[in-house]
Amino acid sequence: MKTTAVVITKDRPIQLKRLIDSVLDSKIPSLSLVLIDDSTRENFERTKNFLLPYSDICEHRSSLEVRREIESVLKKVRLPTAQKSLIETCVGLKSPFRDFAKSLSKVFLFRKKSFTLLLRSFSPYSSARNLGIYHTYKFFNPEKIVFLDDDCYIKRPERLMAALQLIGKKADGKEIVAVSGLYEDLALSIGKRRHPYEELTPTSILTGMNSFLKRSFLNEQEQRLTIMPYHALGGALILSKKVFLSLPFDPFIPRGEDHAYCLDFKARYGKDFAIVRDNLFIVQHNLNEEGSRNLDDIDALRDIFRFIYLRFKVGQCFIPYFTIRRALNALIHMSLEPSKGKQRLFEIWALLFLARVYAKRKANRYSEIVKAWESFLNRIVA
C-alpha cells in the first residue's frame, strides 16, 4: 500500500535532512515524500539540493506555489461558488481571521494596533496541512499519509512501520483508520539524563508539556495502544485515505489543529471507526528556545481563541475556570511587566469578548468545509 510522508517546513534545512533520513531508514515500501516549504530562498535551495537524490519520490513545493495551483484548479472545476470560497478558506487563499478582524474595524475600542495583535494570534497550521493533503493526493494518490514535524526525527524508524501496520486492523471491534504517536523533547531528556530511549514511558516523555496535554496523554500508559485518545499529535499522525479524503483540518482554529482534528474525527467517525495512539511510536522533538518570550505572548492569544472556539464547537460555550484563570494570569503579568500592559489588556478583551464573537460566528461552519473538501478532492484526480 502506497504511503506518503508529508512535512510542513520553514527554515530548518538541517533538521529537515535528519528527519527525511530517519523516514527513509524505515524502509517503507512504496514510500513518497511531500514537503510544503515556507523557507527563505536560500534555505529552500539548500533543501532542494539535498532532496535531489530522491527526486523520483519527492515533491518539494512552497505553500504559495501550491495555493496558486489550487486557485487555478478552482477556476476550472465545477463547484458551486460557495464551495469554492470554502476551499479557498481551507487552503489559506482566504483568511477567516483577517475577515473577522476587518469586521471589527467599526467597533469603538478596536484600533489598528488591535488589528495587528489579532492577526498575529493566528497561525496557518491547518491550511498548510490541507495543502499537504491536496498535493499528496494529486501527485501520489497514497493509501496512507504520515504527517511529521520538521523539528522532529524518528530515532527508531521501525516503529513507524509498526504504527503504519495498525491501519486497517481492529480495536474494540472498530477498524483503525488513524494513528497518532508521541513526542519526546530532546532538551528535557538529555538535560535530565533520562533512561535509555527504549525504556522511556509516556510520563517521562511528556515532562515539560503543559497540564492540558499531560491530562490528555496520561491515560492507559501501561498499554501500547490508547483507543480514541483525547488528543492526537499532528507531528506524528497517520491518516488513511478513508479519512483524509473526507476530513480536512479545521481552518478556523488558530492553533491546536491536531486536537481539533481528533475531536472532529470522533464526532463524525467515532461510531464506526477508531483512532488510536501508539505509545511506542515516538518522535524526538527539538525545542526551539529562540524568541520564546515573544512566542509565549502570541501563544497566549492563540490559546484563548483556540479553547473558546473548541468549546463552542462541542456546544459548551461558558468555561468559567478557564476564563478566571486566564484573566487573573493577564492581570498578574500586567503588574509584573507594565511595558506589556496593552498586550495583557488585549488578552482580557479577547477572553471576554473577541474570542466569543469569533467562535459564535465560525464554530458551525466546519461542516460546510467538510462537504466542500470532499467534493473538491473527488474532482482533482481522474
What does this entry look like structurally?
This protein is an alpha/beta fold. The protein has a domain at 3-67 and 125-289 and 366-380: Alpha-Beta Complex (Spore Coat Polysaccharide Biosynthesis Protein SpsA, Chain A), CATH 3.90.550.10. The chain has 17 helices and ten strands. The chain has helices at residues 13-24, 41-50, 63-76, 81-90, 96-103, 112-120, 125-139, 158-164, 186-191, 202-205, 211-217, 241-244, 257-269, 292-313, 320-336, 341-362, 366-380; strands at residues 3-9, 31-37, 58-62, 144-149, 152-153, 170-171, 174-185, 225-227, 236-240, 273-285. Strands 1, 2, 3, 4, 5, 6, 7, 8, 9 and 10 form a ten-stranded mixed beta sheet that branches. Helix 1 links the parallel strand 1 (3-9) and strand 2 (31-37). Helix 14 (292-313) runs parallel beside helix 16 (341-362) and helix 15 packs antiparallel against helix 16. The relative contact order is 0.14.
Please specify the SSE layout and strand pairing.
Layout: E1 3-9, H1 13-24, E2 31-37, H2 41-50, E3 58-62, H3 63-76, H4 81-90, H5 96-103, H6 112-120, H7 125-139, E4 144-149, E5 152-153, H8 158-164, E6 170-171, E7 174-185, H9 186-191, H10 202-205, H11 211-217, E8 225-227, E9 236-240, H12 241-244, H13 257-269, E10 273-285, H14 292-313, H15 320-336, H16 341-362, H17 366-380
Parallel strand pairs: 1-2, 1-4, 2-3, 7-10
Antiparallel strand pairs: 4-9, 5-10, 6-7, 7-9, 8-10
CATH fold type of the domain at 3-67 and 125-289 and 366-380: Spore Coat Polysaccharide Biosynthesis Protein SpsA, Chain A
Number of helices: 17
Alpha carbon gap, first and last residue: 19 Å
List segments where confidence is low: pLDDT < 50 over at least 5 consecutive residues: 187-198, 289-293
Q: Please provide the count of β strands.
A: 10
CATH superfamily caption of the domain at 3-67 and 125-289 and 366-380: Spore Coat Polysaccharide Biosynthesis Protein SpsA, Chain A
- Work out the oligomeric state of the chains in this entry: single chain
How large is the radius of gyration? 21 Å
**N to C succession of SSEs:** EHEHEHHHHHEEHEEHHHEEHHEHHHH
